[in-house]
C-alpha cells in the first residue's frame, strides 16, 4: 500500500505506473448498468500517449492552460494526464457549472483549449464563446459536433504524430511548474483559481505515504477506490493520483446518485472518499429512522464496538466478556453495516464539510473505518486527518507529516508546508488565503489540543453576531439537525438580528413514505407547513437546542417548501451551503421569523 512510482512531478505518472503495474487493472466503469469493463495500466499509458500527442498536434504548448468540463469517468482521467504530460496546466471546471460560471473559470484562467464531455457541456461553452478570446479549440469526448474536435480525431492525430515529443515534454516539467488551476467552489463571491504546482501535489502525496508508514498501515488487499466525487474538486483528484501511484484500481460511478450504495456493494472498495451527506443518509437509514428503543440498542452496540476496536488498535487485550458481547453485536449489526460498503473497506475519508462525532463513532464502532480530515484547495487537498490508529472523534485529526499548524491570536488556523499553493491566478486577496511568512491563513477558527489534534470551530465569515453582541457558531446546531431522519439541510440565521432562527428543508426519502403511511399530503411543498410535520421538526429543534446555552438556541424555525440545490445556487458541487445565496433566496422567509 505504501509503494510509490511518482517521480519529481506528475507529468509522467501514467508512464511510470505502466512500467511498474503493467497488466494490473487501472480503471473500471460501467458500459451499461451493472456491466463493468476495465483497462490496464498499460492501456492507460497508451491512451494518455495517444491523446496527449493529439493535443500537441492541435497546438498545445508547454505552459498552456487547458480546461476539462465533464463528470467523473475514465476519459476525464485520461484527458487530465494527457494535458499535464504535454506540459500543459489543467483547469478544472465542475460539470454542474452553468454557462456563466464556465465563462468565469475558462476566461479567468485564459484557457487556450477545453475538453468537454458531451453536447450539453459544449453548448455551455458555445453560449459564452464570445467572452473567451483566449479559447482556440474545443474537444468533445462523446460523439462528433460541428465546431468541436472529436476525441477520435484527437487520438488519430496523436497516433500519426507519435509520442516522442510528449515524452520529452513530460520529462522536462519541473516541480515548481503549475500543475492545476483548481477553482474554489465559491461559497462567497466568484471562484478563485488556486495555482497548485507539481511539487505541491507531490508533497501531499508523500505526506500521505509517510502517514501510512508512521501508523504501520499494511494491507495484502489490492487497492480499489470507488470514486463518485467530482474530479474537478481537489479531494477526488488527490485520491485519483494516489490510486494510480500505488497501482490501485479506480471504480468510476455510473452517474446516478441513487445507485451509489449499490455500486459500492458491487465494487467492494478498499478506499472510499466522500462528503458527509452520503454517510449522513446511510446513518439515517441504519439508526435515525428506527423507533427510540431500537435506536438506543443500536447505538449501545456501536459504542461497544468503539471500545473493542480502540483496544485492538492500541494492541491491548480485549476482556473475554467484552469480546463475547462484541461478537454478538458483530453478527447482529456490524456485518450488515459493513456490507453496505462492500465489506472490504480499509478506509473511508470524509471531508469538505463538518460531520457529527456521533456518526463517526457509529461507523467506526460497526467496523466501517470512517475518518474525518481537514484541508482546502489551497493546501492541495490535505492538511490534517484522523487515522484508524490515531484518532480523536470530534476533531479533524493531527497535521500530516511535514505540515505545521498553529492558531493565531484571533483564533484563525494557520498552516505551513510544501503543499501550500502558489496563490490565486490574477486575484490577490489580503485576508482569506493569504500566505504570510509561509503560513496560510485558512479563514477557519480552530483550537489545537495538547496532543496536536485540531478542532475546527467554524468559518470566520460564518460566525453570526447577534444585535446583542453574542457570537454564534452555526455548525453545531446545524449538524445536530441534519442527523434527524426528517431533515435534509439546516441553515442558522441571525447576524445583526436579536436572536438566531433556522431554516430547515425536508428529506424526501424519509418524509414522503412516512407521510403516505399517515395519509398526509404527498409533496414537500404541502408538507412544509402541515401541523404534523411542524411537530416532527419542532421535536428535533428542541433536542438540538437542549445542548446549547440559552443565547445560542434558535427561537424559531421555518420549513422550506423545497430542498436546497446546486441549480438554485445554494449548494456548491461538494454540497457545501452558500450562506449568502440562501440568505438572499429566502430573505422573505427569514424576515417573517422576525416580524413580531
UniProtKB/TrEMBL annotation:
Keywords recorded for this protein, A-Z: Fatty acid metabolism, Ligase, Lipid metabolism
Entry GO MF terms: ligase activity
Spans traversing the lipid bilayer: none
Record-annotated AMP-dependent synthetase/ligase domain positions: 16-425
Family listed: Belongs to the ATP-dependent AMP-binding enzyme family.
Protein name: Acyl-CoA synthetase
